[in-house]
Amino acid sequence: MTAGSTLSNGTTAEHELAALQREHGRPLFALLLRLCDGDRQRAEDLVQETLVRAWQHPEALRAEDFDSVRPWLMTVARRLAIDARRARQARPPEVGDAVLENARVMSDHADRAAAMLDVRQAVKTLTPEHREVLVLVYFQGASVAEAAATLGIPPGTVKSRAYYALRALRRVLPGYAADLR
Prior knowledge:
Helix content: 55-70%
Strand content: under 5%
Largest sheet: none
Shape: rod-shaped
């Protein structure tokens, strides 16, 4: 039977389907809503699919073996829900936008390598005295006292050279200024 075809009793398939929807739509939706764990949209889709199956099998709706078509509809709906659940379990889980917004972002190695090259180039622009202090204190992890002893200068000079070296780097690397504070 095709959509819009006339049945032997003079009604159209659309009218019969509309009557099925009015009479059995709510109980079908209630059953499918439970089977779909409260997912309203999936339950509505399965109600429509159940009614499409009824449209495709009019002989099942007119069988004289039972008084109501509701048990047949409920069985079809339940089987469709089971098939849909199995299909979802066979695929990787879907991820919503909220999950992506809260996900940790892993840094890209290419970005890190590019940043290292930028910093190396910027450090080369410093005076040798500022570069020595910066390398000892920030890159090798020496304390101010250790750097002062290594370079043979007072600790206050180490602090001031480190301050001015960082200040010069902030000018050369404007995009990295927040990292240099």
